[in-house]
User: Fold this.
Amino acid sequence: MKSILEHITQRYSPYSFQDKKVTMEDLSTLLDAARRAPSSYNEQPWRFIYATRDNEEEWNRMLDILVPQNQEWAKKASILMLSVAKKTSIVTGKPNPYSFHDTGMALGNLLNQATSMGIYVHQMGGYDRSKAIENLNIPDEYQPVAMIALGYPDKSEKREETPRNSVESFTFKGSWK
Ligand SMILES: Cc1cc2nc3c(=O)[nH]c(=O)nc-3n(C[C@H](O)[C@H](O)[C@H](O)COP(=O)(O)O)c2cc1C
Assistant:
């Protein structure tokens, strides 16, 4: 079997970050990687709202959305973001069944690009969606997806290996068994 990309095997979701900023130039590179993701009808339904730690007002507004357990460690990240998906298809005018999927695709690109630059990403479902909509002025047409903490990881963080399912357990040849 061929070996898989190093950035995929190296990636993990850190709970501890160095006190080093992710620059705006590097953030632009990450968002450029996100922008190139495939999407249904090329609708590119993803949106990202971000705050950096050096803008206190924006940072606190974003941090406030997280559940306390996530706030505890995410407050040390360099950038906090929220991914947001456009609910309705521009092409069909109906709900877009792929909007979350495609937003995840964009995030996947961002995540791999980030790992290649030494920047690590920790996604979070533990946040208050209603608060996100209110605090960040998200229009009705859009739905919050995941909160994302970005930064340079503290490599001294003690980590257990995260268990993974075997390929056989989630892959079916021909039809579902
Ligand atoms: C959509 C999503 C939501 C998540 N929510 C949280 C969360 O609220 N808090 C947290 O500490 N980790 C959260 N995680 C991180 C996962 O727990 C983590 O990705 C998983 O355990 C695998 O570990 P790894 O990313 O280090 O390989 C989330 C990850 C994803 C993709």
Observations:
- The chain has seven helices and four strands.
- The CA atoms of residues 72 and 171 lie 37 Å apart.
